[in-house]
Amino acid sequence: MDPTLYPQITLFLETKRSYPKVKCSSWVSSKQIWSTKVTTTTTLKSAIAVLRDDGNLVLRDGSNSVESAWQSFDHPTHTWLPGAKLAYDNRTKKSQLLTSWRSKEDPAVGLFSFELHPFNNQYVSKWNSSQQYWTSGAWNGKMFDLVPEMRFVIDVSGQVQQLTWLETTKEWNLFWSQPRTQCEVYASCGAFGICSQSGLPFCNCLTGFNPRSESDWIQSDFSGGCVRKTDLQCRRNVEKLDFLMIAVKNLPPNQSVESGSAGECRTTCSNNCSCNAYSFVDNQCSIWDGDLLNLSLDDYSRKTIYIKVASKDLNHPKKSNLVMVGAIVGFVGGVVFALGLILVLIYRKTRISVGKTTMEGSLVVFDYKDLQTATKNFSDILGGGGFGCVFKGVLCDSSIVAVKKLESISQGEKQFRSEVSTIGIIQHVHLVRLRGFCAEGNNKLLVYDYMENSSLDTRLFHGKHLLNWETRYQIALGTARGLVYLHEKCRDCIIHCDIKPENILLDAEFCPKISDFGLAKLVGRDFGNVLTTIRGTRGYLAPEWLSGVAVTSKADVFSYGMMLFELVYGKRNAEQSEDSRSLFFPCLVANVLMVGGDILSLLDSRLKREASVEEVIKICKVACWCIQDEEDSRPSMSLVERILEGVLDVNMPPIPRSVSLFSLVCLQ
């Protein structure tokens, strides 16, 4: 509500013989803003409005403390409170809905809703009151199959969220949300918007497209989607068209199937004015005539879609007229040859000079243009995260490197050089070696050794080559040793702040090496820019990140514990099962440990139970200790190292409070 329009709001009770109302008006203009609009044939002798302690605004007869003529709990908006109703009214044949705000600043009714399905007794999330994209599961007599007890909010993002109150900070803490990732929400980025879980904002426009409303996008309202920068104006031959190729997690809905080869599929879409995109997957041609919804990036997918766009908006180099080129070449050919010879001599001299003078301690100071050449203009991307993207590069000596292009680094060049030089002297067998860096103006890059076997997440979740149990155990032990070095053996304790499978790299022998171990120091201790992205992978985030208290090395211990679960499971800790139920793997582990069940039943099914029972139990116990809610209850990484080495035994851990909330769901 805009305070400039309604500087003071007054809530008052208007009583008439048969229809008392609660009304909300502006004190300045006496303009009615809202009313209960209740009518009843019952005569109320002394109607009163009461705001109860549970948040329910009740209109009732003063002489009757039970019956109410109207209550706000019967008319929820975007938040459900304990005691409120969220049901289907058989009299009116309507569901009571939770509806999202239109944007974070606009409380008007948004596109997302949450309601009880009138026929199958389960709650569902919908887009535009029509497209269902999540369900709570059926009611089993005690609870819904897929949902623990919670306080709900249907967020502007379309996610159903559970908020818990932190008394220490007097703030609401986001504890749980469904769907698990933002990109699973139907049409979350609107038409021609692309969703990515690797950073914020989640939504961006495709190349060649702009937001339909810039102001809405600034307020995180992506529902309007994107529009082409250039109108194609079909059949007028005004603009030459081309196709943007992207790899997506799933092809968008509402396609039509055509016959023909890949080339014929492209031609069909080119010649069809209404065609917006085509795809040729599994020898099938698919055509999309309407808006493209649910586009989600996936670097590992083979599902490729080609989206029609104006050729000039793809930034293709323009082809010169052949006659003009011939004239220019003939006129300046001799000059070009001479200049080329001079430039070659200068370049060779510069390269020799670089080899002699660009050493700073044990690190090489690279020229930005050299790294641009080595990475083919930063085209071969290996991955990305909270600190920037990583590209594969080949140096002039033919050695292969990984080049990380940093984002949101505010330090000056001198300070950056000093910090990187400090990190550069940190050497350990389980830390990725930093070769050098580049610091030219706003361009800040780090050059690392290239890891032949990519990252742990690739091998666990996407790789074709299965990691056996022995390798997984050694990865757990090696990662622990690397963290011990950072926490306890460096001159200053280094807190990694983002331990997860994506940041554990594997060399040719599958020896684990922690990457990005110094970047938390580089971006500053407030972690302001990094935290927003870390929240994108909330599954590894220690509770203290969200409670506002000082973060210690025990935050890394928590993240390490969550990663241990995934080493055992072979999947993300929160996954959909084959019967579409939501599973939280740590609570399955806790339940099996409590009853002394079959621990190998929790193992990655691809391993076919081929693992040491003692080692699996040890890993699971250590993981449960690492994710305890209180920092003091978590072990140090040196203690974890000694346990995994077999020097110390590990006791049965208590079940963390956050896990126990999900345990009932796991037992169903």
Automatic annotation (TrEMBL):
One of its GO terms (cellular component) is plasma membrane. This is non-specific serine/threonine protein kinase. It is an enzyme of class 2 (transferase). GO terms for biological process: recognition of pollen. The keyword Transmembrane helix applies. Keywords: ATP-binding, Cell membrane, Disulfide bond, Glycoprotein, Kinase, Lectin, Membrane, Nucleotide-binding, Phosphoprotein, Receptor, Serine/threonine-protein kinase, Signal, Transferase, Transmembrane, Transmembrane helix. Residues 376-648 form the Protein kinase domain.
